[in-house]
Design a protein that fits this description.
By secondary structure, this protein is α+β, with helices and mostly antiparallel strands. 43% of the residues lie in helices and 18% in strands. Helix 1 links the parallel strand 1 and strand 2. It is elongated. The N and C termini lie far apart (43 Å).
Length: 65
């Protein structure tokens, strides 16, 4: 028996500065691979850990501010 396919959702992923920003990359990847439309909103401090080009490559969208 197959599990029902979840309906793709719009997700806003807010990321603050800290080492956990690296883990958010994996979370973003999993969301996008599942078909969700993810908008990334990092703080300036988060961008010091993971740059905007990485977030944009993983989400396929520009980073919001």
């Amino acid at each position: 028996m197959n599990a029902p396919t979840p309906t793709p959702q719009r997700v806003v992923l807010g990321i603050s500065g800290g080492i956990a920003a690296y883990k958010a990359c994996e979370l973003l990847r999993l969301f996008t691979e599942s078909g969700h439309d993810v908008t990334v909103v990092p703080t300036a401090a988060a961008l010091e850990f993971v740059g905007a080009p990485t977030w944009e490559a993983l989400s396929g969208k520009p980073v919001a501010s």
